[in-house]
Write a sequence for this structure.
Protein backbone atom coordinates (compact mmCIF):
# COMPACT_ATOMS: atom_id res chain seq x y z
CA UNK A 1 0.00 0.00 0.00
CA UNK A 2 1.28 3.48 -0.90
CA UNK A 3 2.47 5.99 1.68
CA UNK A 4 0.46 9.06 2.69
CA UNK A 5 1.23 11.98 0.34
CA UNK A 6 1.37 14.42 3.29
CA UNK A 7 3.34 12.77 6.10
CA UNK A 8 5.18 10.28 3.84
CA UNK A 9 5.20 7.83 6.75
CA UNK A 10 1.88 6.10 7.38
CA UNK A 11 -0.09 3.96 4.96
CA UNK A 12 -2.51 5.90 2.75
CA UNK A 13 -5.91 4.35 3.38
CA UNK A 14 -8.13 7.24 2.23
CA UNK A 15 -8.51 8.67 -1.25
CA UNK A 16 -8.80 12.47 -0.94
CA UNK A 17 -11.10 13.94 -3.64
CA UNK A 18 -9.75 17.45 -2.99
CA UNK A 19 -6.06 16.64 -3.40
CA UNK A 20 -6.51 13.84 -5.93
CA UNK A 21 -4.16 11.69 -3.86
CA UNK A 22 -4.24 9.34 -0.90
CA UNK A 23 -3.91 10.25 2.78
CA UNK A 24 -3.50 8.32 5.98
CA UNK A 25 -6.35 8.45 8.50
CA UNK A 26 -4.49 10.84 10.82
CA UNK A 27 -3.57 13.41 8.15
CA UNK A 28 -7.13 13.29 6.82
CA UNK A 29 -8.47 14.09 10.29
CA UNK A 30 -5.93 16.82 11.07
CA UNK A 31 -6.19 18.64 7.74
CA UNK A 32 -9.91 18.21 7.05
CA UNK A 33 -11.60 21.61 6.46
CA UNK A 34 -8.55 23.32 7.98
CA UNK A 35 -5.81 23.18 5.37
CA UNK A 36 -7.81 21.25 2.77
CA UNK A 37 -10.88 22.65 1.04
CA UNK A 38 -12.98 19.50 1.37
CA UNK A 39 -15.80 19.03 -1.19
CA UNK A 40 -19.22 18.42 0.35
CA UNK A 41 -19.49 14.97 -1.27
CA UNK A 42 -16.37 13.59 0.43
CA UNK A 43 -17.50 10.44 2.31
CA UNK A 44 -15.02 11.03 5.15
CA UNK A 45 -16.29 14.59 5.64
CA UNK A 46 -19.92 13.43 5.66
CA UNK A 47 -19.10 10.62 8.08
CA UNK A 48 -17.19 12.68 10.62
CA UNK A 49 -18.93 16.10 10.47
CA UNK A 50 -21.66 15.28 13.07
CA UNK A 51 -18.99 14.07 15.51
CA UNK A 52 -16.80 17.11 14.89
CA UNK A 53 -19.70 19.52 15.36
CA UNK A 54 -20.64 17.80 18.61
CA UNK A 55 -17.07 18.24 19.89
CA UNK A 56 -17.10 21.92 18.93
CA UNK A 57 -20.39 22.57 20.69
CA UNK A 58 -19.25 20.79 23.84
CA UNK A 59 -15.83 22.47 23.89
CA UNK A 60 -15.15 24.34 27.10
CA UNK A 61 -13.51 27.72 27.26
CA UNK A 62 -10.11 28.07 28.87
CA UNK A 63 -9.54 29.21 32.46
CA UNK A 64 -10.41 32.84 33.28
CA UNK A 65 -7.69 35.37 32.74
CA UNK A 66 -6.08 37.27 35.61
CA UNK A 67 -8.06 40.32 34.55
CA UNK A 68 -11.36 38.42 34.68
CA UNK A 69 -10.47 36.90 38.06
CA UNK A 70 -9.91 40.41 39.37
CA UNK A 71 -13.53 41.21 38.53
CA UNK A 72 -12.92 43.24 35.40
CA UNK A 73 -15.33 42.31 32.63
CA UNK A 74 -14.81 42.74 28.91
CA UNK A 75 -17.92 44.93 28.82
CA UNK A 76 -16.16 47.55 30.96
CA UNK A 77 -13.89 48.34 28.00
CA UNK A 78 -15.49 50.61 25.39
CA UNK A 79 -13.14 49.37 22.67
CA UNK A 80 -14.13 45.76 23.35
CA UNK A 81 -17.82 46.69 23.45
CA UNK A 82 -17.43 48.02 19.91
CA UNK A 83 -15.76 44.78 18.79
CA UNK A 84 -18.45 42.64 20.46
CA UNK A 85 -21.16 44.63 18.69
CA UNK A 86 -19.59 43.99 15.29
CA UNK A 87 -18.93 40.33 16.12
CA UNK A 88 -22.63 39.69 16.75
CA UNK A 89 -23.99 41.90 13.95
CA UNK A 90 -23.78 39.17 11.24
CA UNK A 91 -25.55 36.70 13.55
CA UNK A 92 -28.33 39.20 14.05
CA UNK A 93 -28.76 39.59 10.28
CA UNK A 94 -28.84 35.81 9.77
CA UNK A 95 -31.29 35.37 12.62
CA UNK A 96 -33.60 37.99 11.13
CA UNK A 97 -33.49 36.59 7.59
CA UNK A 98 -33.89 32.94 8.52
CA UNK A 99 -36.38 31.99 11.28
CA UNK A 100 -35.14 28.38 11.03
CA UNK A 101 -31.58 29.37 11.97
CA UNK A 102 -30.74 28.09 15.47
CA UNK A 103 -28.34 28.73 18.32
CA UNK A 104 -26.44 25.65 17.17
CA UNK A 105 -25.57 27.26 13.83
CA UNK A 106 -24.67 30.52 15.56
CA UNK A 107 -22.24 28.83 17.95
CA UNK A 108 -20.65 26.79 15.15
CA UNK A 109 -20.17 30.01 13.16
CA UNK A 110 -18.50 31.71 16.13
CA UNK A 111 -16.23 28.73 16.82
CA UNK A 112 -15.31 28.62 13.11
CA UNK A 113 -14.34 32.30 13.14
CA UNK A 114 -12.37 31.90 16.38
CA UNK A 115 -10.46 28.94 14.94
CA UNK A 116 -9.55 30.94 11.82
CA UNK A 117 -8.43 33.97 13.84
CA UNK A 118 -6.26 31.83 16.12
CA UNK A 119 -4.57 30.00 13.26
CA UNK A 120 -4.26 33.02 11.02
CA UNK A 121 -3.88 30.91 7.89
CA UNK A 122 -6.17 29.75 5.11
CA UNK A 123 -6.92 26.33 3.75
CA UNK A 124 -5.22 24.89 0.71
CA UNK A 125 -7.12 26.06 -2.34
CA UNK A 126 -7.50 23.35 -4.94
CA UNK A 127 -7.62 24.61 -8.57
CA UNK A 128 -10.98 23.94 -10.18
CA UNK A 129 -12.77 23.47 -6.85
CA UNK A 130 -15.72 25.58 -5.80
CA UNK A 131 -14.12 28.12 -3.45
CA UNK A 132 -17.33 28.76 -1.57
CA UNK A 133 -16.61 28.71 2.19
CA UNK A 134 -17.79 25.70 4.13
CA UNK A 135 -19.32 27.80 6.87
CA UNK A 136 -20.67 30.94 5.28
CA UNK A 137 -22.01 32.25 8.59
CA UNK A 138 -18.59 31.73 10.13
CA UNK A 139 -16.96 33.57 7.25
CA UNK A 140 -19.38 36.47 7.80
CA UNK A 141 -18.46 36.65 11.49
CA UNK A 142 -14.77 36.37 10.63
CA UNK A 143 -15.01 39.23 8.13
CA UNK A 144 -16.82 41.43 10.66
CA UNK A 145 -14.16 40.78 13.30
CA UNK A 146 -11.21 41.27 10.94
CA UNK A 147 -12.63 44.46 9.42
CA UNK A 148 -13.73 46.05 12.69
CA UNK A 149 -12.00 49.30 13.61
CA UNK A 150 -12.62 51.23 16.80
CA UNK A 151 -13.87 54.74 16.12
CA UNK A 152 -12.75 57.21 18.73
CA UNK A 153 -15.29 59.75 19.92
CA UNK A 154 -12.83 62.54 19.15
CA UNK A 155 -11.86 62.38 15.50
CA UNK A 156 -8.12 62.81 15.10
CA UNK A 157 -5.58 61.83 12.50
CA UNK A 158 -5.34 58.06 12.66
CA UNK A 159 -8.49 57.94 14.76
CA UNK A 160 -9.40 54.40 13.71
CA UNK A 161 -7.74 51.77 15.89
CA UNK A 162 -7.18 48.17 14.84
CA UNK A 163 -7.58 45.21 17.19
CA UNK A 164 -4.92 42.72 18.20
CA UNK A 165 -5.36 39.03 17.54
CA UNK A 166 -5.73 38.38 21.28
CA UNK A 167 -8.55 40.92 21.52
CA UNK A 168 -10.42 39.33 18.62
CA UNK A 169 -10.12 35.88 20.19
CA UNK A 170 -11.23 37.23 23.55
CA UNK A 171 -14.30 38.88 22.02
CA UNK A 172 -15.27 35.70 20.18
CA UNK A 173 -14.79 33.61 23.32
CA UNK A 174 -17.05 35.98 25.25
CA UNK A 175 -19.83 35.75 22.66
CA UNK A 176 -19.48 31.96 22.50
CA UNK A 177 -19.74 31.74 26.28
CA UNK A 178 -22.85 33.93 26.25
CA UNK A 179 -24.47 31.91 23.46
CA UNK A 180 -23.78 28.56 25.14
CA UNK A 181 -24.98 29.82 28.52
CA UNK A 182 -28.27 31.02 27.05
CA UNK A 183 -28.83 28.03 24.77
CA UNK A 184 -27.98 25.51 27.51
CA UNK A 185 -29.18 22.06 26.40
CA UNK A 186 -31.53 23.35 23.71
CA UNK A 187 -29.11 24.07 20.88
CA UNK A 188 -31.82 23.59 18.27
CA UNK A 189 -33.77 26.49 19.79
CA UNK A 190 -33.27 30.25 19.43
CA UNK A 191 -32.87 31.46 23.00
CA UNK A 192 -29.57 33.20 22.35
CA UNK A 193 -30.64 34.50 18.94
CA UNK A 194 -33.88 35.92 20.30
CA UNK A 195 -31.99 37.66 23.09
CA UNK A 196 -29.59 39.01 20.47
CA UNK A 197 -32.44 40.30 18.30
CA UNK A 198 -34.10 41.97 21.30
CA UNK A 199 -30.80 43.54 22.35
CA UNK A 200 -30.13 45.00 18.89
CA UNK A 201 -33.71 46.29 18.74
CA UNK A 202 -33.09 48.17 22.00
CA UNK A 203 -29.85 49.58 20.59
CA UNK A 204 -31.74 50.88 17.57
CA UNK A 205 -34.47 52.40 19.71
CA UNK A 206 -31.96 54.17 21.94
CA UNK A 207 -29.98 55.49 18.97
CA UNK A 208 -33.15 56.95 17.45
CA UNK A 209 -34.02 58.75 20.69
CA UNK A 210 -30.50 60.09 21.19
CA UNK A 211 -30.09 63.70 20.12
CA UNK A 212 -27.32 64.60 17.72
CA UNK A 213 -25.15 67.28 19.27
CA UNK A 214 -23.15 69.62 17.07
CA UNK A 215 -20.32 71.87 18.25
Amino acid sequence: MAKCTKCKQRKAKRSCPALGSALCNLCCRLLREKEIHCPSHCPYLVQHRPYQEKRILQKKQGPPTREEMAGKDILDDERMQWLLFHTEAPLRELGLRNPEWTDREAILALEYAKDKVEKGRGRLIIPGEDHKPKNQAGEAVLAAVENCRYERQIILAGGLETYKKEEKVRALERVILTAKSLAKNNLEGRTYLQQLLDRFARFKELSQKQKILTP
Summary: The first strand starts at residue 14 and ends at 16. The longest helix spans residues 78-97. The two ends are 77 Å apart (CA to CA).
